[in-house]
């Protein structure tokens, strides 16, 4: 047991060193082989941390009885998936990385758009960090640092970029794009068969089909995974940045549009709850309960929370909120918010 303990601890520590090297490599400005090296290092880091976790849980990581040949990265993470340590979304993302890495080692890798790199890299690091904290907390500090790579180009999300590339596969003869989509698809397909499909098998999936994406496993991944965009925020002094995630319109053509609205909170939301109470001639308790019952909080047309401490917020309301409340009370003069 002591030997195993030393081995899985050694694997985990080495894995963190490799993942930090991958992050450092990804943030480099000048490198002719940056993307490929990043995929190779990330695969190496994931292989070792997966084996470390498996050994810690007393699971086998060897192919042979004499314990000299260990399993590959995709096999090790698949064992974590079988143990419910990794989710389906996580294993699909990691297998895309392994698929590209394997191709990089044996061939010339197709060009990988930055949106796809950002997505695979960001979530790979995030999932990795979560596992380190859970299974090897002694290395938490080394992986919970600030890592940033800046860009002045506006980017799409992984989903938008993949959809854009796939939509052109039949109309634009681009070998690199076809190879890239195949590598992503074969990664996602790996968990079902424990084999990487060939490019011919990939192309057979959508041959004679009007729509390519709907016939790929990649489409299910796009619809189930979260998206990420790296967005720098620039503003003058005395402005604050408030990021609000809301369910978008189904007609939107992009997966995660970012809308900048430069405003002054005090101008757009001039009323405190006490101000609203005075305007409608009610006490503060009545007004607070009324606002809650009407569902104004969380609707940015009416409400804006300003965090005032670790545990609380100051709530401010717009002219539209006041008008809405007044209109409601005019139509419901006998309304009692305490009876709802």
Give the SSE string: HHHHHHHHHHHEHHEEH
Q: Runs with pLDDT <50, length 5+?
A: none
Helix content: 40-55%
**What value does the Rg take, in angstroms?**
26 Å
Q: Looking across the biggest beta sheet, what order are the strands in? A: 1-3-2
Count of domain modules: 2
Average pLDDT number: 88
Q: Would you tell me the structural class of the helices and strands?
A: mainly alpha
Number of distinct helices: 14
Outline, from the CA principal axes?
A: elongated
End-to-end span in angstroms?
A: 62 Å
- Write down how many β-strands occur, each being a DSSP E stretch of 2 or more residues: 3
The biggest beta sheet, please?
A: 3 strands, antiparallel
Our estimate of the beta-strand percent is: under 5%
Can you walk me through this structure?
With 340 residues, the chain is mainly alpha-helical. The protein folds into 2 domains: 223 residues, no CATH class; 75 residues, Multidrug-efflux Transporter Regulator, Chain: A, Domain 2 (Orthogonal Bundle). It is built from 14 helices and 3 strands. A 3-stranded antiparallel β-sheet has the order 1-3-2. The longest helix has 25 residues. It is elongated. The mean pLDDT is 88.
